[in-house]
Amino acid sequence: MHGCISAAKIRHLKHRQMTKALQTPFELDVILHLCQSCGGGGSCRIPAFLDLAEMPDYGSNCPPKPDIHDHDRTHDHSDNQDILMMHLYKDERTALFLDGSNLYATARTLGFDIDYKKLLAYFRERTRLIRAIYYTALLDDAEYSPLRPLIDWLDYNGYMVVTKPVKEFTDSQGRRKIKGNMDIELAVDMMQLAPKLDHVILFSGDGDFRSLVEAVQGMGCRVTVISSVATKPSMIADDLRRQADDFVEILDMKDIIGRPPRPPRPAEEEDYLPADEDMDAE
What we know:
By secondary structure, the chain is of the alpha/beta class. It has two domains: about 1-65, no CATH class; about 75-255, Rossmann fold (3-Layer(aba) Sandwich). The chain is about 35% helix and about 15% strand. It has twelve helices and eight strands. The termini are far apart. The relative contact order is 0.13.
């Protein structure tokens, strides 16, 4: 063997073995609690695909309900940690990869704004955060980009920001189009960091990342994907959701990482603001 395997990676390998036939942590929890209906008489049937070799032998009695409050697991009910079913560990080397445009579109569709200060603090308090990387494309020739204040703030406040200029082209019908895909940059960074990580958290629903997630899992990392199925259509590709070790509904995090609603501006201020249609890019 080359070096020691961290406790976090051992937990991950057990987690993958126990949940390889399951889609979500909720399903695992349901199956492990099937024995509740038999009242401890041993009449319950745990599905055969669960490898319970590591569990103690309780004889004819049902396995007890697993303790979700492990000594090294965060369990603050005030912020819905248990409801989220996001498994975070203090000793686990973790990195956040934020697909900026996808995350913005998801939050906008759900009707709230992301508070990036609260988001960073949430993960810093609960895990060993190595990197938080935000990816977005920018219009280079624009006199002012509405993204620039956000990019500058992220740069100065704990995030690594990766940008590139969008490409402008004209389609076959003569329409002006812009393209700013950051998938390659995100994939390269994740592959480079994966050997130094235990847990990868991806904020995106882009199905193009399914193969990337599979590759990172093969390197020993646990992968959590944060997006939404609360919209119609869903903001996450089904293939990506199935491939991830854990999926977290971002709407459930609204009270944790969302910005409070902005109070309406006074009428005199609004009178000086341009109409919405005047602010649209031509």
